Amino acid sequence: MSTSSPHHRFRDTRATKYDFLSSVLVRCPGCGGVARVGPAPDPAAVNDQGLFAPRRLVCRNCGTAKERNRGSVSLHRDPHAPATDPHFGIRLWLQAETRHGWVWAYDLEHLDLITRFVRASLREGIPWHDHGRKMTVVARLPAWMKQAKNRDDVLRAIARIHTALPPGWSTGTRGQGREEMT
Known about the structure:
This protein is an alpha+beta fold. The protein contains three helices and eight strands, in the order βββββββαβαα. The protein is globular.
């Protein structure tokens, strides 16, 4: 029987970065507040929620709204520069710089996954003999984020990200803090 607490154990959920692109928090180009990029309403009722589906940027603070039709998605980013949204190329809201590099997330669920991974003293990856997704979000984290000696730096950066959230935004997991796109 294991004496390790489940709080300090992390098992890879097999989530990829594509699993967090349905609702991305960005810095509004109009007012600098929190805006959300999500699926645009589909007048043809096709209900395509894929990676290349039309997207809408909405800021509830200033009313900025932009739409982007189907097209290319840019997931590549410079590790020495702030992260951007893959659809509009707008700077992400959930990010902070450390002396090692940038800590960033697309949404609160993504940030929570990174937090649980970094905080855990026992990290269980996907077994080599298991078939399926191998290059998950946590497997693709930079090496410096995975090192125990940098744990405090990463957790401080995540705390700064949570502090930067406007009042009323939840810092919980699994759907909390999400508003519907209108």
